[in-house]
Amino acid sequence: MNLQGKRILLGVTGGIAAYKSAVLLRLLVKAGADVRVVMTAAAQRFITATTMQALSGQKVWTDLWDEGVPDGMGHIELSRDRDLIVVAPASADFLARLATGLADDLLSTVCAARRAPLFVAPAMNVEMWQNRATRRAVAALRADGVSVVGPDAGEQACGEVGDGRMSEPERILDAIAGFFAPGLLRGRRVLITAGPTEEPIDPVRVITNRSSGRMGYAIAQAACEAGADVTLVSGPVALDSPAGARRVDVRTAEQMFEAVRRHVPDADVFISVAAVADYRPRRMAEQKIKKTEGGGLTLEMVENPDILAHVAAMKGGPLCVGFAAESENLAENAQAKRLRKNVPLIAANLVQEALGAETNAITLYDDAGAHVLGSGAKIELARKLVSHVAEMLATRSATPARGAGS
């Protein structure tokens, strides 16, 4: 990830999640950003300014009345050369004050007097996050154009479980990178399927596969970074939603098919990454099937709908991108699938190298032939794929994106 030369102001408010701000700062600096840190008095109860100064290589600002700022106007001077302001963590108190325009310390006045865009990453107890006053504040901030990253669900420092955890620094970094991305798909609507499906045998057993969903989620993230309006239809996975994507959770192939049919009429691009089960049991047993000693189990299977083929056959439908996970004869099988399903682009990989892994190796196949993306982290390959899709869209038609100008 390259943020070389990007100028960011990182605001830190009070909360145990302040320790994550140090990790975020380190990631930003590693990516090449110039980061200026402003901390509230409460934030300094959890992490020291000395720590943030060591990580940023710059003075950390904490006092509205700092005499080191020309004319005593830190709230003006500190933000004017910044490309982006990020407050992480953003406490319930800070969000409420920001939403109502209160500005009585350095960070709140910097945000009130800003010209740069503002991201906030909320962090608080689950009940504080669900509090109606907090929800009103967040809704007001969103209406004012503030980007809200998270929060995530999980176990909290207080011992309770639920929404309110500050998003992980890597996810916030992805949102920041998306803000600075060139916008190759800006104005485009992208529909993506990801993950496995589960086909029930009885109330406790399912037929599924080993797909982790990581590749599909990486593509959703890359599309968001490129400025697209992204809808992600996901099978059951243990992954956080990409920042900026709308997620629709499904379990079976039929549920995924119905979700795609609902959303595809508005899509400019459909990317079918999900490992959809080809078959499902004809009937699901109403009760758990009991094991019989020495006996076997026979299941009658029926074919699931072919989601990619259905979308590809739509008159005036979106640009379709399929995935081919093969165990052998990669080029031959991928091209055969592309022609059989009549899709412009197939991304192919060897299944034994990709399932469950953080890395992948992908080759694209279209009418022009093979395009080797190489091997690497899935997010890097996803960005290359999105770039290729953007080029195809540009040459496919001179008509504007759906919804553009409306």
Topology diagram in text:
Layout: E1 7-12, H1 18-30, E2 34-39, H2 49-56, E3 60-61, H3 74-77, E4 84-90, H4 92-100, H5 106-112, E5 118-122, H6 126-130, H7 132-143, E6 147-148, E7 152-155, E8 161-165, H8 169-180, E9 189-194, E10 199-200, E11 206-207, H9 214-225, E12 229-234, E13 246-249, H10 253-263, E14 269-272, E15 279-281, E16 301-303, H11 307-312, E17 319-326, H12 330-341, E18 345-350, H13 351-354, E19 359-366, E20 369-377, H14 378-396
Parallel strand pairs: 1-2, 1-4, 2-3, 4-5, 5-6, 9-12, 9-14, 12-13, 14-17, 17-18
Antiparallel strand pairs: 7-8, 10-11, 15-16, 18-19, 19-20
Helix pairs in contact: 1-2, 1-8, 4-7, 8-9, 9-14
Descriptive keywords:
406 residues, alpha/beta, Rossmann fold, six-stranded parallel sheet, 20 strands, 33% helix
